[in-house]
């Protein structure tokens, strides 16, 4: 129970310290910021090893070896070697070895990126645009998509017809950005209310 | 005799067994899954179904689901299921008081497929789009004259760096929370390289705080190479391209701290950003830095537009990345992109007009609407 | 070969395998994506040690050299190694660092969560300061952005409907023929919000999305073909 009390006081101090930054940079914010970076970096390392490296490499190797599934066990040597290759960067003469794991991860990004762009972006966006022009809203969507796409036309100067269409496109883009902006305001304000509730309810029981 | 029991006997006599038991290998998968569907003639007073499976006839049937299921479909992907083995199934339907079995159906064999037919639309688009890109790449090798329109903010890079140099202030570059597998991070690397070669020339300090260690190592290599190329390897300091934390707001807090204490003259936000974008960009603005942003995360673009001096919207960052490369071949894909956009505008327009005509002439020419629906359905992304 | 060609072939091979695997459910392709992503997570886990080295070294140097603000660096290093210590201790003592009663989770609950939540909450202030600045910029783009933002914001908050009730009353006073109840029910701000989000916002989002998809595919292809190789620093 006392550890919870200490925890609540600590959490409240850190909350006030972070908020103090809104006024100006000050020693309290600096301290909270450095503590935050330190703790969260340490947390990330433990998280990566507890949830990724240990179960996926060490435990998986043991389980497969136990089940006499030698292929699945020994293939894990590849990611282990790639991981160690990353660490060899620290030795100046062996820095080049880290190009291999980096290339492997970039290969994953490029392969998945190519497919995901079609499956996750292109198909649904085109599908949603194909609506018959039987009402004003469908017509606005059609004009919006076509003009926005024209704005992203790079190999022609935005003059004449292309220029006019692209200008309509940027109007759509700005209205869309404004709408997203306005839509987020309430969500952010409610987060702030949440923090004040913590301060004035959990820490100082002023609100019942 | 309790009344409920009496009613139970009466009701049990009313349950009809499930019919039309249909078994098939689950399509487009890695195997070891059988799809079962059935028809239940009666829906009232039924509490659920249980599925039974055996691998021979006559043989021992085992129940597959402990909890009764409500629907009339079931995907059997039990870990004991093997490919190539014939299986037999029956369904037991339950009411509150009784149960009835369907006739046994089978055999059915599961197998893995060599092609996922649900993804044929992705394959077709991938072939067409990449084919066109490769065509334009090949063409670009011989064609050195290519026009690319002005990209918002790209010209501002030099202006921002110049101002930071004049004021004797450092330059800050952030990839945000981007991973090395994000294409936008790879696209931001040539821009970082350009900035690094300028900061090396002007002898200005370049600070790159990172949230992902893999991105950090790649950034270190890129900056080091740029400094060497600019003839100032002595100015390169690995400590300036450091790791902060991978925690979203921890990163924001750390970057804010750097901004407040180092007071950079120019800040570049190029990569992947989430909600922290505005915290960092507003802090950057508060110290009077020139800020240039670019991200593919469209939800954050409004905030960058509001807080930064220049913002590359959407794919402009990809185009900017190509633009900075001296090779004409890089511009080939931009030409290709534009041609595909042109094709898409034609495709979308013609399909939309076809759909409109289909609706207006629904009685006179119903095939127009059918054709429209067929095209629309082709574009549905399936799993 | 080891410096340049090999890594380029590795990028090409990895990407091509993943693209092929997307269309082939049969073994060994079916689980290739999950397998490669696991490997990526493992490599990333090792790379975190480099990140740790970078962060710790950066601040240890400051402490040793007694540079300006060295005390804060000391706080950071203490927090970093303290967290690692408690994490490892909890891992050994409670079988998992994330066991609910482990001291490591105490750090998470009383330090990381409040810090995250407070940083996130500061956005409430920044969003208004950014909006205020957008208000002062007098060009068409900024004006459109702001009008749309105000409409959606008013449509999203309870006060929006009160304001609309006031406007309805005003209209009714000027044009007494109008029906006040019907005017009130019209809820202009809420209707404008729904329309802006569903129509122009969606339309521009789709245009940007299609462009991004094409840009992303082109970027991937340039990487796969080895045209874009800045990551190899060449």
From TrEMBL, chain A:
The chain crosses the membrane at residues 6-23, 35-51, 71-88, 100-122, 134-153, 165-183. Keywords: Membrane, Transmembrane, Transmembrane helix. This is Uncharacterized protein. It comes from the Bacteria.
UniProtKB/TrEMBL annotation, chain B:
This is DUF6754 domain-containing protein. Coiled coil: none annotated. It comes from candidate division WOR-3 bacterium. Residues 111-357 form the DUF6754 domain. The lineage of its organism: Bacteria, Bacteria division WOR-3. The keyword Membrane applies. The keyword Membrane applies. Pfam families: DUF6754. Keywords: Membrane, Transmembrane, Transmembrane helix. The chain crosses the membrane at residues 120-138, 171-192, 339-362.
